[in-house]
Amino acid sequence: MHSPTQLQEILEKAIPQIAYPQHPANLYEPSRYIMSLGGKRIRPVMVLMATELFTTDINKALDVALAIETFHNFTLVHDDIMDNAPLRRGKQTVHEKWGINNAILSGDVMMVESNKHLSKVDVNVLKPVLDTFNATAQGVCEGQQLDMEFEQRDDVTIEEYIEMIRLKTAVLLGGAMKLGAIVGGASTADADLLYTFGENLGVAFQLQDDILDVYGNPEKFGKQVGGDIIANKKTFLHLKTLALAHDDEAESLTSVTINQEEKIDQVTHLYNKYEIRNLATAEMDKYLTMANQALEILAVAEEKKENFRTLVQQILDRDR
Question: How many CB atoms lie within 10 A of CB 272?
Fold first, then answer.
């Protein structure tokens, strides 16, 4: 079996070979650009890893992996527009470089390109592949919509937040695993177990992201510490503190009258007072346990599961 690193190398060679049309240049060049910016390629790697559990021929899943990576980058293009983000992986975002209208249209055509990749799979698995991909893509859009709506609400519950991150982040990891399994010839039961593994891993990943936004090493984490606090994002930490803090304390969570540094200090003090980091870590570990339970039940040889355990460690080794 290939290691996750070897699969990543296979993908890095395949991505530049995607044959986008040359014209109109302003439609397709942004796609080449965003796809070339790198990243860990976690989602397409998961596709290939899942396939290799059931067959030695990972090439049959390569187009599915490229479809998942293309779709993921399409969501980044549109997310950056909605967030008015100037940078993506240290480079200009597509809408900054080509303008908002071009970025919207380029993102749209990337969704078409994703479906073109999927259409290349064996006809015997085409329907379940398309059904799984469409359900996954729809879930991601629903999650993004909920995330935007939460910005205008003051009554978001922790249960609603978990459901939002499940849709926005986790279903894509679960969908990637299930797609790879389907193409590899897995049983329905095993494909569903891999979906459960990926989905729970995705929720754990986002909860860890919430924790690292406050407590992470900015050089290792790659983001500004306290960014969620400044933006008043309704993360697990924020919502759990609202549930535990006194009314006068909770006001500092959403205050816009103090400077950013002071706000980060005040909110972090509240998190520490109510041991929010420990509570968030326990919640994250709950989803990791569910992911590992699904992996244990999976009907494949134990040695084949080692790559998945390695991947979990790589994903979560972000200065926890």
Answer: 12
Domain range for 128? 4-316
Residue owning tokens 């790589």: 314
Domain count of the chain? Answer: 1
Cite the beta strand spans of the chain per DSSP E.
Answer: 87-88, 91-92
160 burial (CB, 10 Å; 0-12 / 13-18 / 19+) is middle
Pair 218, 225: CB distance under 8 Å: yes
pLDDT > 70? residue 220: no
Q: Taking the mean position of all CA atoms in its chain, how far away is CA 105?
A: 22
pLDDT digits (tens, 9 = 90+) for 117-128: 999 999 999 999
How far apart (Å, rounded) are the C-alpha atoms in residues 206 and 134? 22
- Global pTM reads 0.92
Instruction: Give the domain CATH number at 211.
Output: 1.10.600.10
What's the chain's average pLDDT?
Answer: 92
Nearest to 170 by CA among 300, 319, 284: 284
73-116: per-residue pLDDT in tens? 999 999 999 988 888 888 999 999 999 999 999 999 999 999 99
Q: Which two tokens stand for residue 228?
A: 């969620």
Q: Phi first, then psi: what are they for 172, rounded to 5°?
A: -70, -35
CA dist list (Å): 8 to 30, 44, 45, 166: 22, 8, 6, 25
